Amino acid sequence: MSSNKKILVCCGTGCLANNSYQVYEKFKSLTKEKEITVKPLVKPTGCNGLCEKGPVVKILPDDISYFKVKVEDVEEIIEKTIIKGKIIDRLLYFDTNTKTKITDHRNATFYKNQHKIALRNIGEIDPSKIEDYIERDGYEALKKVLFNFKPEKVLDMVEESYLRGRGGAGFPTGIKWKTCASYDNFPKYVICNGDEGDPGAFMDRSIMEGDPNTVIEGMIICAYAVGSNQGYLYIRDEYELARKNMQIAIDSAREHGYLGKNILGSSLNFDLEIVRGGGAFVCGESSALMASIQGKVGEPRAKYIRSVEKGLWEQPTILNNVETWANIPPILLNGPNWFKKIGVKDNYGTKVFSLVGKVKNTGLVEVPMGSSLRNLVFEIGGGIINDKEFKAVQTGGPSGGCIPKEHLDVNLDFDSLDDIGSMMGSGGVIVMDENTCMVEVARYYMEFLSEESCGKCTTCREGIKLMLDILTNITEGKGTKEDLDLLIDICHTVEKGSLCGLGQTAPNPVKTTIEFFKDEYLEHIENHRCPAGVCKNLTSYHINQDECIGCGICAKKCPVDAISGEPKKAHKIDQNSCITCGECYENCPVDAIKIGGGIVES
Amino acid sequence: MIALENKIEINLKNTEKILEKYPKNKRYTLAMLQDIQRNYEYIPKEAMYEVSKYIESPLNEVYSIATFYKALSLEPKGKFVIKVCNGTACHIRGSDKVLDEIKSSLDIQPGETTEDGLFSVEIVNCVGACALAPVMVINEKYYGNMTKDKVHKVLEKIRRDNNEQQ
What we know:
The structure holds two protein chains of two kinds.
Chain A: E1 6-10, H1 13-17, H2 20-33, E2 41-45, E3 57-60, E4 64-66, H3 74-83, E5 93-95, E6 100-102, H4 109-112, H5 130-135, H6 140-148, H7 151-161, H8 173-182, E7 189-194, H9 203-210, H10 212-226, E8 230-235, H11 240-255, E9 271-276, H12 286-293, E10 317-321, H13 322-334, H14 336-340, E11 343-344, E12 347-348, E13 350-357, E14 363-368, H15 373-380, E15 390-395, E16 402-404, H16 414-419, E17 428-433, H17 438-452, H18 458-475, H19 482-497, H20 501-505, H21 508-516, H22 518-527, E18 540-543, H23 553-557, E19 563-564, E20 572-573, H24 583-587, E21 593-596
Parallel strand pairs in A: 1-2, 7-8, 7-10, 8-9, 13-17
Antiparallel strand pairs in A: 1-3, 3-4, 5-6, 11-12, 13-14, 15-16, 15-17, 18-21, 19-20
Helix pairs in contact in A: 6-10, 6-13, 7-8, 7-10, 9-10, 9-11, 10-13, 17-18, 17-21, 18-19, 19-21
Chain B: H1 12-20, H2 29-40, H3 45-54, H4 59-68, E1 80-85, H5 88-92, H6 95-106, E2 119-124, E3 136-138, E4 141-143, H7 148-165
């Protein structure tokens, strides 16, 4: 048996929710208690990506991965796999694409198509141990930069790589850095935007939790290149574990001489401080975030002067997103040409997507830029849950758009997504199926944005609210055909009249759903019917008398006893007492329950 | 909603201790208020006065921060704060059903606290555990892939454990 046996237990937020910490502790205590000739090293790691199948346990160097591991399984794993080298079939990953069980998770379709740069260390290291990071080339880029390159050379390399900001807008990082470096105004600040607020995106959280040192290293390199001595990490209020792991990493980086005065004996002085966000979505916007760090209300300002010139405390400031920072060390270590070999023209490298919604394999995925959406959803994601029909994908959070079936072959890169009216955003990919109502989705985003609008610009504050009212009316069956024109009109006004990205992009969900799913809007307006069965007022359920097998499951599930029928005979729903909760529809084993229109004719 | 304020005696000593940790600088207003929120589980009016005095800023500035950020609350919250995630992934996977179950089993609306002061319910936008949608978070513990039945069991267990402790 090998002497460097390791047991890696995923302790990302997803796995923790399924008691992975208890699994980790059980491994720790049992490996101590039991007589094992060569004691394996037990380590907690960051997120492995496939959160849905967690807790994930990896055994190295044998490359055995177990999924959905429970505390009760730990003893068996030690007895059988660690001591006897046998594989426990039950805990292996079942690949829904190839219909096989897989021993090494890297061979699964979910992982095979991935290319990891930003997530390269996550799941492989204990994020609280800086030594683990160093062992995997950590801080090598910093050393190379500090002692071999002048700041100008670093700026050139980042520009040459054509790395674009991973936070959403895709602005070239090198140009941002060069502009900031050109100002002879000190002090300068370096900020990490860890205020990940787009619903459906959690890659930044995963990086901060699972590999905090890569963010720190990226920021130190930038500080050296632009001439800054102080940096801030603005981390979302909700991300407790990210803040904790980041603080541990900052403290140990300081102990190891990577932060503080005269870093690694050079003349560079740089230190970092964590600022905890206050739970306001708009603070993900750069100028609002800076206001928040300064102790003000997080309202954006007009950006006639960019923050690279006058940002935090009116000083030149570089602000990049977590994932962007994680890309910096590998780019400087391997050179811009290495980076440009990955991805497509003007969109080099990889992008992390959070693949969620009605897809079989949900989780974090890192693929080369320019991969097709179809590949992401149907190969890596394994297709739609219960093999239902794909309807749309929503990318880019509330600022993005809905992409319909016709565009499934779109390339996932900044420019291609822009071309079809959506956007990359931070990389949330929310898959929707036939049971998702697109009108309701648009309404949902307007509700979200109306709550999160800071209220400074009238068009954003009032316009979004107005769109929300109109969309609510449509979902309740009170819409008119003229509403659609009015919505488009308001979209233009909000876009043109708002100061920051939140307002300017807020109409996107409305615009794209009207463009691609107009029929669904019209079905709500003209026929008072919600085809997806989501809008309660516009939905009724009927049992197809020929298809019903009379199993009685629906009658048992019905919370208001609206379903009756004799065993083995077709059942019926009493429309007067039905509350259209959908329990029967979801639980029917033969799909005999059909969705009808809202107004019940009897 | 019921006012718990009269039941809680505001111990300003804790506020003083919190403020001492920070330099007298406006920059730390949000951080101070977050610590106060953690200590009292809301922002008592008296504590806001103390912050205003400490950083030598008008009370309205402290108040505007206390009301702008969602992490802060001017209303006392229950011992267990249930956050129902309504991020997009949770929303399309049925977070409304999770909320319905909580509302009906606790007989409160989002933003309210149960009469015994045990539970508060809030709707939040994405807690970043989208792969486990729909998700709810109770005092920092995440519960994934929620169904009506699971919600019911979790709430029952918390109530039982709480009764046993007392």
